[in-house]
Specification:
Radius of gyration: 26 Å
Strand content: 5-15%
Shape: elongated
Helix content: 55-70%
Strand order of the largest sheet: 1-2-3
Distance between the termini: 50 Å
Structural class: mainly alpha
Number of helices: 8
Low-confidence stretches: none
Largest sheet: 3 strands, mixed
């Protein structure tokens, strides 16, 4: 939470600065960056709200709690990036046809300041972004913005020295391209979670083989693995096991849960054990 507040403060300050210079210099690429920053500010604000809501305890209605709201925000974040990229592309095409006069030096200085600010934020988010989909989204967007800032710097140099106004439109298209590159994986990952696909980090076949490695397990049926949130994986399965006493079944269940915890990092487990007098591992 504290990290997101810091990022929001830095992005808000940078947004106001770049917006003023972008309007003054008539630079579409700077204004495109402003649109991205404004979307960032909205997305981070929603993430802060979603994070606070996600910390609420589970209820009889929301049995897994409210943590999946973070995934919805991440999806909206990615779709917002794609919308900004589309708008920037449309404006850049118009800029090619009728380029506006652009002040190259203010554009250059502003892009340099933006690159410095974004580099600081990237450093702050780098280690934390791997375990949180929303932080990952913010990290990818700011990384794209930083890469776009380099393109804006090059465009500003071209405009300042050669007065090639079309370079601003090219830089805008570059910004839009990097926005798309950062948004598509975020949207795909969010949809995979919402559609309850098995996480990329989990090999379902390996889990099934691991369950069959226990001599007492005859067959694994209805094996389902899905992601609740970025760091919460759930599993349920119906296991046919050899006929055994209640104590032996409890011991087997504890062994299976411990193994799945340690080997696959799965802690949300529902295992149903059904005993059979005859256990044939070769049956379908």
């Amino acid at each position: 939470m504290r990290l997101l507040w810091i990022v929001l403060g830095l992005r808000s300050s940078l947004f106001l600065f770049v917006l003023m210079i972008g309007l003054w210099s008539h630079s579409l690429s700077l204004l495109a960056s402003c649109g991205d920053m404004f979307s960032d500010m909205v997305a981070i604000s929603l993430t802060l709200g979603a994070t606070a809501l996600a910390q609420r305890p589970a209820t009889k209605i929301a049995t897994f709690g409210y943590r999946r709201i973070e995934i919805l925000v991440a999806l909206l974040n990615g779709l917002g990036i794609l919308a900004i990229a589309a708008l920037t592309t449309w404006e850049a095409i118009g800029q090619f046809q009728e380029p506006d006069p652009i002040r190259g030096l203010p554009m250059l200085v502003t892009a340099g300041v933006s690159l410095v600010f974004n580099s600081i934020i990237i450093r702050l988010l780098h280690n934390e972004s791997s375990n949180d989909l929303n932080l990952k989204g913010a990290f990818l967007r700011i990384l794209a913005d930083a890469t776009g800032s380099i393109g804006v710097i090059l465009a500003a140099l071209v405009i300042y020295y050669f007065n090639w106004l079309w370079a601003d439109a090219v830089a805008s298209l570059l910004v839009a391209t990097f926005l798309c590159i950062s948004a598509v994986p975020l949207v795909i990952d969010s949809l995979r979670i919402l559609l309850e696909f098995a996480p990329r980090s989990i090999d379902v076949a390996a889990i099934e083989a691991a369950l069959h490695s226990f001599p007492e397990v005859c067959q694994a049926e209805k094996l389902n693995v899905w992601t609740i949130t970025s760091d919460q994986i759930a599993l349920n399965a119906h296991l046919r096991v050899k006929l055994m006493t209640v104590e032996e079944r409890d011991q087997l269940l504890n062994q299976l849960q411990t193994y799945l915890n340690q080997e696959f990092g799965i802690y949300e487990l529902t295992l149903q054990l059904t005993a059979f007098q005859e256990c044939d591992r070769n049956e379908p």
